[in-house]
């Protein structure tokens, strides 16, 4: 017995495994009936291993490692009082990222809405023939495209835009020229035309050279009654409309947006690069006319009263961006470390299986060590960090509008994945985990089913685009054809799709009926029903698993016997440590340890 005490071995007699499990804590016991060991620094799970068992000590250590690895945060908290750091970080990240997204969405909406309203104003000021009815997007469109049909209309449109630009002070909007002294800068006309493009239709002949030449001219000395045609003739700039491909008239204006001002936000300053485009690529006698205005945010030199408020706003936004980047960086490090350690444990498990059982882990077993939730969290961390960095630049520097869109895509996608990550923690509860397991179970079957459905869908798409495209506005492009068919699957706009078809070709009119009836019947009554049945089959399978038990791979089977042996003792230890939540938790834990060590 002295020898036993020297080696910190406790002797006890018990008739069953549970008594042995309650026998000792932080010690090992040797006797005639078996061996009992417990390491408090590992999983706080006592284990009783009979000497007659063929399970070695190395196997028990490996099982204990794997058991603890596959615990969820709640079980780890109950077992070792390990603080769920990743869970806390994710909760903080959800709150901060959502607040950041709401603020940025409000700013971006104001920015996009402001630029759109200004584009409408520029269309009225500089675009000849623009009407308010074109400002409403209706379907089907009530008006045709804005286009030019005569050479005189081309020059009249240029003169109208230049005159409106020269009389910028008459506009209701607070628009100014881009020069520092508010002097008018020269509008620039650039046009592209074929090097040679003469057509002699009366005898079906032509002269054509496909090389495209681009020419630009600045309109200077603009006075009242300015004529662009006369100016171009004086500059020896000749436009051959039979060879003309496209033309653009470009100029810029500056303005200040007072609407954005608030208790802590100053007005915003913008420069609008306006471009009027003349599209003659089709050479079908119709030159399409459009106006676009690209907004560039500038640094304002405003009233001194807004200096302090501006600094407060920038400081608060910078603090929020910094917190988001900091929290996402911590989340990235924690999840990357977890993925790395999982791969280390996988390699250790593979070596153990090869050495002990002379076999490798199955594919399912190896995939158990790859946590796709962590991979998704890592991806959204990267997206949010990049988006926050761009957002910080937008709020401090001159930024073009395309960076607003890039920042919006990064932050929006990252926030989407952040909220998807909440499903991982809901999966710890049986009620919510049914949905996740159903999706996981149905994914392979759904993917195979969708592959077959997509092949049929592609056939209908290409067929409709080719045959119905010239006679149906919804089938004029491959993208619009696919969108129309997808809408039909969901029962949207069916009657309009049938009625819009032109009756110019009776044969194609009847063909369109057969085509549409076949597609709608096949996908609504057959494909969608089969799709739902695949998911329902997975749901019934998951319900059966909950009743009869889930199938296990080689890793789960390996640790199953360890879980069974230690289940009763784990409950007693967990109940003891759960008492530490109370004010006397520390004393209760000490008492529990003393009780088990008797």
In short:
The protein has 598 residues and is an alpha+beta fold. The chain is built from 17 helices and ten strands. 22% of the residues are buried.
Task: Give a written overview of the molecule.
This protein is α+β, with helices and mostly antiparallel strands and 598 residues long. Mean pLDDT is 79; it is low at 1-55 and 563-598. It has helices at 2-6, 17-21, 57-69, 73-80, 85-126, 151-166, 228-234, 306-357, 363-367, 372-396, 401-426, 430-468, 478-489, 494-500, 506-548, 554-578, 585-597, and strands at 28-30, 35-37, 47-49, 147-148, 188-200, 205-218, 244-257, 268-279, 287-298, 399-400. The radius of gyration is 37 Å and the shape is extended. Helices cover 57% and strands 13% of the residues. The chain contains 17 helices and 10 strands. Strand 5 and strand 6 form a beta hairpin.
Distance between the termini: 16 Å
Largest sheet: 7 strands, antiparallel
Average pLDDT works out at 79
Strand content: 5-15%
SSE string, helix = H, strand = E?
HHEEEHHHEHEEHEEEHHHEHHHHHHH
**What fraction, in percent, of the residue positions are helical?**
55-70%
- Show unreliable segments: 1-55, 563-598
Based on secondary structure, the structural category is: alpha+beta
Cα radius of gyration in angstroms: 37 Å
Which geometry do the CA atoms define?
extended
Number of helices: 17
Write down how many β-strands occur, each being a DSSP E stretch of 2 or more residues: 10
Per-chain topology:
Layout: H1 2-6, H2 17-21, E1 28-30, E2 35-37, E3 47-49, H3 57-69, H4 73-80, H5 85-126, E4 147-148, H6 151-166, E5 188-200, E6 205-218, H7 228-234, E7 244-257, E8 268-279, E9 287-298, H8 306-357, H9 363-367, H10 372-396, E10 399-400, H11 401-426, H12 430-468, H13 478-489, H14 494-500, H15 506-548, H16 554-578, H17 585-597
Helix pairs in contact: 3-16, 5-8, 5-11, 8-10, 10-11, 12-13, 12-15, 16-17
């Amino acid at each position: 017995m002295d020898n036993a005490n020297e080696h910190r071995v406790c002797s006890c007699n018990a008739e069953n495994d549970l008594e042995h499990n309650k026998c000792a804590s932080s010690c090992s016991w040797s006797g005639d009936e078996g061996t009992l060991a417990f390491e408090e620094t590992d999983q706080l799970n006592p284990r009783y291993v009979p000497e007659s068992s063929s399970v070695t000590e190395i196997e028990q250590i490996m099982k204990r490692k794997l058991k603890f690895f596959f615990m969820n945060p709640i079980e780890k908290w109950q077992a070792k009082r390990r603080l769920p750091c990743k869970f806390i970080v994710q909760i903080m990240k959800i709150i901060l990222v959502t607040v950041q997204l709401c603020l940025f969405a409000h700013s971006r909406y104001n920015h996009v809405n402001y630029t759109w309203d200004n584009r409408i104003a520029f269309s009225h000021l500089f675009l000849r023939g623009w009407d308010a009815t074109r400002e409403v997007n209706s379907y089907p469109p009530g008006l045709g495209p804005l286009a030019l049909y005569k050479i005189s209309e081309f020059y009249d449109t240029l003169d109208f835009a230049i005159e409106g630009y020269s009389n910028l002070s008459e506009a209701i909007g607070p628009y100014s020229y881009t020069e520092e002294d508010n002097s008018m800068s020269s509008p620039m006309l650039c046009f592209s035309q074929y090097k040679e493009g003469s057509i002699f239709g009366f005898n079906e002949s032509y002269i054509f050279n496909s090389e495209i030449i681009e020419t630009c001219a600045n309109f200077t000395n603009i006075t009242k009654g300015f004529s662009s045609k006369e100016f171009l003739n004086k500059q020896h700039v000749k436009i051959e409309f039979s060879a003309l491909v496209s033309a653009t008239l470009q100029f810029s204006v500056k303005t200040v947006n007072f609407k954005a001002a608030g208790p802590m936000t100053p007005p915003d300053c913008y420069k609008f690069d306006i471009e009027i485009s003349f599209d003659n690529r089709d050479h079908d006698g119709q030159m399409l006319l459009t106006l676009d205005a690209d907004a560039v945010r500038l640094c304002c030199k405003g009233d001194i009263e807004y200096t302090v408020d501006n600094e407060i706003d920038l400081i608060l936004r910078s603090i929020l961006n910094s917190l988001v980047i900091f929290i996402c960086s911590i989340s990235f490090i924690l999840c990357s470390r977890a993925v790395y350690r999982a791969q280390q444990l996988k390699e250790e498990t593979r070596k153990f299986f090869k050495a002990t059982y002379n076999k490798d882990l199955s594919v399912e077993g190896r995939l158990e060590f790859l946590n796709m939730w962590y991979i998704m969290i890592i991806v959204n961390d990267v997206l949010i960090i990049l988006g926050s960095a761009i957002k910080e630049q937008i709020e401090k520097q001159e930024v073009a509008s395309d960076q607003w869109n890039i920042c919006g895509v990064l932050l929006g996608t990252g926030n989407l994945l952040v909220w998807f990550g909440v499903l991982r923690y809901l999966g710890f509860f049986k009620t919510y985990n049914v949905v996740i397991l159903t999706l996981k179970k149905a994914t392979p079957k759904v993917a195979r089913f969708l592959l077959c459905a997509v092949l049929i869908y592609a056939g209908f798409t290409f067929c409709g685009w080719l045959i119905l495209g010239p006679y149906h506005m919804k089938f004029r492009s491959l993208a619009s054809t696919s969108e129309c068919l997808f809408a039909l699957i969901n029962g949207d706009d069916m009657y309009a799709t049938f009625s819009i078809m032109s009756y110019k070709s009776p044969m194609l009119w009847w063909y369109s009926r057969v085509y549409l009836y076949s597609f709608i019947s096949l996908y609504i009554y057959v494909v969608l029903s089969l799709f739902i049945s695949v998911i329902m089959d997975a749901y019934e399978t998951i319900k059966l698993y909950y009743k009869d038990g889930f199938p296990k791979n080689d890793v789960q089977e390996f640790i199953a016997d360890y879980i069974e042996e230690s289940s009763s003792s784990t409950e007693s230890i967990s109940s003891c440590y759960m008492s530490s939540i109370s004010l006397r938790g520390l004393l209760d834990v000490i008492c529990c340890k003393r009780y088990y060590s008797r």
